[in-house]
Amino acid sequence: MKAQIPAGERTLVLVLAAIQFTHIMDFMIMMPLGPQLMRVMLISPQQFGILVSAYTLTAAVAALAVAFYTDRFDRRQTLLFLYAGFVISTLLCGIAPGYNELLTARAVAGAFGGVAGATVHSIIGDAIPENRRGAATGMIMSAFALSSIIGVPIGLVLAAHFSWRAPFLLLVAVSVLVFILTWRILPPMRSHIVAGEAHRPLEQMRSVLGTANHLRAFAFMFALMFAGFSVIPFISPYMVANVGLKETDLPYLYLFGGLATAFSSRYIGKLADRYGKRQIFTLIGLISIAPLLITTNLPPAPVWVAICASVIFMVFVSGRFVPAMALVISSVEPRLRGGFMSINSAIQQLGLGAASFLAGTIIGHGAGGTLTNYWLVGLIAVGATLLAIALAWRVEPVA
To answer: Relative to the CA of 109, which of 52, 269, 287, 303 has its CA 20 to 30 Å away?
Structure first.
């Protein structure tokens, strides 16, 4: 049966997708800014890796800290509070005077943004039935494509003409508008709160962490995040240093890759609803091995070749997350979903941070400023992908 999102659900999903758009752009914009930041701030690939990891690691810590308290509150109130903190911390990124201040601001932004992202997925789990959850998740994940099509290219153009600060300041302006939209449209979200039942954080912790299916879902997401983000943060620096692109060419990679992903994410979500989330994840995951290897071994090439490689990479490597997230959202009961998704967010951020940190320690500088050992990072990503595929078949949907 073809899963279509009804009009009422579509409005809710579009609001949540707008939040994800800004959250994902905030994270993504750091990666293509890598060449400029390393040049302007005189930092090494290792320091840039730490700059990326700081966002994810603090997101993980924050998610763990609030995991077993979020289910006692209206999800609307929780999301608005977290998103306000995200906007303020992103402003701090844009006005940071140096590397240390930017590192601190990125850490604060990660703390708010990471938990806000988990709350978005909790709302999807509460409000969207399981048979339409893949399609809804596809719409949420298309925010990645939209940020690639609109946000990152515009941010890179502003960075090229002004400075690396300009993309963050633009994001603050957009986020303020999204906050107002969310405040006006998002309804109260209290269906997960059981009337008359006292909230017991320790008991909820035992229920979430004591369920084998939950632990398998966490391991699955860690492996998947590690498989993608060991490669993703260094694509732009590699394209400039090794493939021979100019920094002004980078927006085209994100523009065309994002255009392709805008269509593919939603289509993959519908396929997951129709044919099974694990089956579609396995298919997309196996196909994604090719673009992982191509991207990390690409020799000097014309811009059009790099664009083609970027399109294939974004469609399949990013496409894996649509059925994966739909599967994970469905693996937990509604009453535990807020805490579960917060822990899941922490696991994702730990996987992402560990991947970018490890990649930063493996990648080095060669003759003429080229990056070395990126091919080895690609092989590690392939291994993590195969592990994620195996783990996906151990995760059972329950709600």
So the answer is: 269
At a CB cut-off of 8 Å and minimum separation 6, what does 268 contact? 138, 280, 284, 319, 322, 323
Are 224 and 351 in contact, with CB atoms under 8 Å apart? yes
The C-alpha atoms of residue 386 and residue 369 are separated, in whole angstroms, by: 32
CATH number at residue 250: 1.20.1250.20
Pick left, alpha or beta for residue 392 (phi over 0 → left; psi -120 to 50 → alpha; otherwise beta): alpha
Quick one: how many helices (H) and strands (E) in the chain? 18, 2
Alpha helices in 67-193 (DSSP H): 75-94, 99-127, 133-146, 152-161, 165-185
Does 2 map to a domain?
A: no
Asked whether 2 and 274 are in contact (CB, 8 A), the reply is yes
Note whether residue 397 is domain-resident. no
> DSSP for 98-134?
SHHHHHHHHHHHHHHHHHHHHHHHHHHHHHS-GGGHH
Structure tokens at 297: 């071994």
What is the pLDDT at residue 91?
Answer: 94
- The total domain count for the chain is 1
Distance CA 362, CA 65 (A): 31
What are residue 99's phi and psi, to 5 degrees? Answer: -60, -50
Count of C-beta atoms within a 10 Å radius of residue 190:
13
Residue 398 in any domain: the answer is no
Residue 352 lies in a domain: yes
Residues in the chain with pLDDT < 50?
A: 1-3
Instruction: Please report the pLDDT score of residue 67 as a whole number.
Output: 66
Residue range of the domain that includes 92: 7-189+201-392
Distance from C-alpha of 387 to C-alpha of 47, rounded to nearest angstrom: 29
Tokens of 88: 């303020």
Assess contact for 237 and 45: CB atoms under 8 A.
yes
CA-to-CA separations, 6 to 39, 146, 189, 253, 293, in angstroms, rounded: 49, 22, 18, 34, 40
Question: In angstroms, rounded to a whole number, what is the distance separating the alpha carbons of residues 48 and 56?
Answer: 13
Contact between residue 326 and residue 277 where contact means Cβ atoms under 8 Å apart: yes
CA distance 309 to 373: 19
Q: What is the DSSP string of 262-301?
A: HHHHHHHHHHHHHH-HHHHHHHHHHHHHHHHHHHHT--S-
The pLDDT tens digits for 316-345 are 998 898 899 888 888 887 777 777 877 887
Query: What is residue 2's predicted lDDT score, i.e. its pLDDT?
Result: 45
Q: Find the distance separating the first CA and the last CA of the chain, reported in whole Å.
A: 18
